[in-house]
Amino acid sequence: MTKELVKTSPIRGRKGLPEGPIPTSTPVASKPSGVMSAVNGALSCPRCGCKQIMEIHQETESEMLRGGKGLSMFLGCPACPWASEMLTIASSPSDKD
After folding, report:
1. What is residue 86's three-state secondary structure?
2. Which structural domain, as residue segments, surrounds residue 85?
3. 38 φ, ψ to 5°?
4. Any domain includes 72
5. How far apart are CA 84 and CA 29, in angstroms?
6. In this structure, is residue 8 part of a structural domain?
């Protein structure tokens, strides 16, 4: 995927807000696991009401992450375009430390 394909929020890039992470892999959806499993069935999609919320993982790059690469996770609805905010965790140590 290229940077041109990443849609940015209208407020990103202004007033010092950084751009979001850039996807570098195909998203993988699964039933929520671990802490996320608590929302499975308990949370419905705020847009369409679907009860089958999915956990989505995707590898990303961002200069704000230690090492520049990480794994992003978010919840999404398979029936419509709704998705939660993304949580990104660095996946490799920085050589700068």
Report:
1. coil
2. 21-90
3. -65, -25
4. yes
5. 13
6. no
The 10s digit of each residue's pLDDT in 55-91 is 999 999 988 888 999 999 988 999 999 988 888 999 8
Question: What is the DSSP secondary structure assignment for residue 40, as one 8-state letter?
Answer: B
Total-model pTM: 0.68
Cα separation, 55 vs 84, in Å, equals 10
Q: What is the pLDDT of residue 86?
A: 86
The DSSP letter of residue 83 is: B
Domain count, the chain: 1
Token pair, residue 43, equals 């949370």
3-class secondary structure, 76: strand
Coil/strand/helix, residue 3: helix
DSSP letter string, 16-31: TPPPPPEE-S--EEE-
Nearest residue to 65 (alpha-carbon basis) of 4, 25, 20, 26: 20
CA distance between the termini of the chain: 29
User: Rounded to an integer, what distance in angstroms lies between the CA atom of residue 30 and that of residue 55?
Assistant: 5
Name the phi and psi angles at 36, rounded to 5. Answer: -65, -20
